[in-house]
Amino acid sequence: MSSYDYDVIVLGSGPGGYVAAIRAAQLGLKTAIVERENLGGVCLNWGCIPKKVLLKNAEVLETIHAAADYGITFENLQVDFGSAVKRSLDVVNRQTKGVGFLMRKNKIDVIEGQGEFTDPHTIKVTPAEINPKAEARAVSGAHIIIATGARARDLPNVEADGERIMQYRHAIRLREKPQSLLVVGAGPIGMELGYFYRAYGAEVTVVEMLDQVLPLEDPECAAEVAKAFKKKGFTLHTGARTEDFEVGKAGVKVTLKHLKNDKTETIEVERVLIAIGVTPNTENIGIDKAGVQLDKGGAVVIDANMRTNTPHIYAIGDCTGKLALAHVASAQALVAAETIAGVETLPIPAERYQFMPRCTYCKPQVASFGMTEAQAKEAGYEVKVGKFPFMPNGKAQAINERDGFVKLVVDAQYGEILGAHLVGPEVTELLPELNLAQFMEITPAEIARNVHAHPTLSEVIMEAAHVVEGHAVHI
Fold first, then answer.
1. Is the dihedral of CA 214, 215, 217, 221 positive or negative?
2. Which pLDDT tens digit goes with each residue over 300-320?
3. Catalytic residue numbers?
4. Domain locations along the chain
5. Which of 73, 81, 173, 324 has the highest Cβ tally under 10 A?
6. CA distances from 124 to 3, 33, 138, 263 (A)
């Protein structure tokens, strides 16, 4: 009989934490989860899920505005911005209840409150700001999994007050549409929320310090998104940074500096959204008392099995600084729980994170993994590239979504897929075929000969594979 209260305690209940708890319980381990806020973490309550609901509303609205293309006309269109936000909250509520059901089904104890190590095996739980009635207590665990996530990064000397200057938590719950919005940062969060607000009629300006929007994506994909956004009426400033914010009663005056010529300009907007990435939540959880090592950025240092330098303590998700994506956290969760239980698992070495799927859900969507063409060449590979547009695709024509392409980056010697970069309709749903192919060492030659149903968007993947092999059909 263990001398500890639990075999496993999971600190945090996001898509890493609750998946780890479920897998541990499935493997026969007595498990508890400590959560200071809401089950499901940021992804379910403030990020991935509510944002996707809002983006669907934006897509529907765009389709309605293009109704004449389908032979449909009408008058007196009424658009209720608040209803879109309410729908997102309704979905969040249902999903949160679903996670609660899974906790009960798997006999996982949910302990509400702020968790903090007092020693390497003990978590002190105290009432949290959002849940002041939580019971103060201490629990011990033979193993502990840190899954505390990350939070939006702040700009130096700029206070996000939730009114004029916002982080994503504020922007995703606004009840009224701003007339104008400046987005600082052109990564997925900034581009997705910018797209949503623009669809509802806000004047949106995006400022990115690097030379392209979506700076971590293939330059051709980023250029395709920039072209589409400009058509939608966005103002895009790349190679620029914000220098000063002057907050007034009616809005914010923002001073921009263009890095190529050192010129400055001032923009006045109703609200500002700061979307410059995230920082790990590793403060105020007693990391020092657990003896757990952090890197210079405050992320927990882990090995391929999610172990920290303290052998019985593991870490998963955004707090590890590997790749701040929900599905990565869930994948890490399975490895951690299975390692603790002593069953066979599939470790995730550091080099594997480059091949994890990356998705941006604005319109057009972007999906990718692996190396860009330039990165592959820099790594010393002889590269073949297969690129095929959506324009000739019958399904893309039928659904009136013709922009974009699929691009495969392949090792010329062995046919290994080094990277895939997709931009266009529903490419986030198309990516798994290529991701699985790369994981299982399936080559473009085999993808090209695998029969894809017609008419489907997935045929563009097949066509891109044909291009790699030098026998393109429909182009």
1. positive
2. 999 999 999 999 999 999 999
3. 454
4. 6-152+279-351, 165-276, 364-469
5. 324
6. 17, 13, 4, 53
Instruction: List CB contacts of 373: < 8 A, sequence separation 6 or more.
Output: 218, 383, 385, 407, 409, 419
DSSP alpha helices (H): ranges in 66-185? 81-105, 168-171
Question: Which amino acid, one-letter code, is at 258?
Answer: H
Question: What is the side-by-side order of every strand in the sheet holding 240-247?
Answer: 240-247, 252-258, 264-269
Hey, is 452 helix, strand or coil? coil
Q: Do domains 6-152+279-351 and 165-276 have the same CATH topology?
A: yes
For residues 193 and 202, the answer to whether their CB atoms sit within 8 Å is: no
CATH number of 165-276: 3.50.50.60
Cβ distance 57 to 79 under 8 Å?
A: no
Cα(150)–Cα(147) distance, integer angstroms: 9
Give the number of residues written for the chain.
475
Read off the pLDDT of residues 196-241 as tens digits, 9 standing for 90 and up: 999 999 999 999 999 999 999 999 999 999 999 999 999 999 999 9
The dihedral through the CA atoms of 191, 192, 196, 197 has a sign that is: negative
- The span from the CA of 420 to the CA of 370, in Å, is 7
Does domain 364-469 fall into CATH 3.30.390.30? Answer: yes
Q: How far apart are CA 149 and CA 91, in angstroms?
A: 22
User: pTM to 2 decimals?
Assistant: 0.95
Residue recorded with tokens 């403060």:
283
Task: Count, in order, helices (H) and strands (E) of the chain.
Answer: 14, 22
pLDDT of residue 170: 92
- Tell me: cis bond preceding 455? Omega within 30 of 0 counts: yes
Characterize 172-196 residue by residue with b for buried, 16 or more Cβ atoms within 10 angstroms of its Cβ, and e for exposed.
bebeebbebbbbbbbbbbbbbbbbb
Residue type, 73: T
Compute the distance between CA of residue 208 and CA of residue 44 in angstroms, rounded to an integer: 27
Tokens of 430: 């198309």
Here the tokens at position 138 are 């201490």
Q: How far is C-alpha 5 from the geometric centre of its chain's CA atoms?
A: 34
Q: Which amino acid is at 1?
A: M
How far CA 71 is from CA of 21, 67, 157, 285, in Å, comes to 51, 7, 52, 59
Q: State the amino acid at position 382 in one-letter form.
A: E
DSSP state of 468: H
